[in-house]
Amino acid sequence: MRVGIISDTHGLLRPEAQRALEEVALIIHAGDVGDPEILLKLKRIAPVFAVRGNVDTAPWARQLPARTAVAANGASFYVLHNLSELDLRPDSAGFHFVVSGHTHQPEQTEKHGVLYINPGSAGPRRFGLPVTLVKLNLTERPWKARYVDLLS
Questions:
Q1: CATH code of the domain covering residue 134
Q2: What are the helix (H) ranges across 22-147?
Q3: What are the tens digits of pLDDT across the range 1-21?
Q4: CA distance between the termini of the chain
Q5: Fewer CB atoms < 10 Å away: N or C end of the chain?
């Protein structure tokens, strides 16, 4: 089972992102969606779990939770936009992954057996950072985020 992880679209869903996500069975959006149409387009590809980011302040975004838990193929994900607002110990709570966005910096680290993934930003390029998303194959162990550079 493949999971697509995307964040910080800021109202822009690039065709490259849509193509990269075509083969996934589930999409996690870690906030700063920017436009409800983004979620509608993603839902045409696969089921979507999304959280609200700091730019998601319009009335439509009130339906998005600040945090969510997702379970798929024996893996559990804790999703929030800003990692500095983490409000639990993911290892104690039984999560395998923590997914966040906000910084626009692609990053993967492990702490206490939990894989922390920031897919970077898939929207407008900012701060000279790469434009990326993550694909994660849950059937391959050890789990490892595979970053997709959307502009290369």
A1: 3.60.21.10
A2: 36-43, 90-93
A3: 999 999 999 999 999 999 999
A4: 25
A5: C
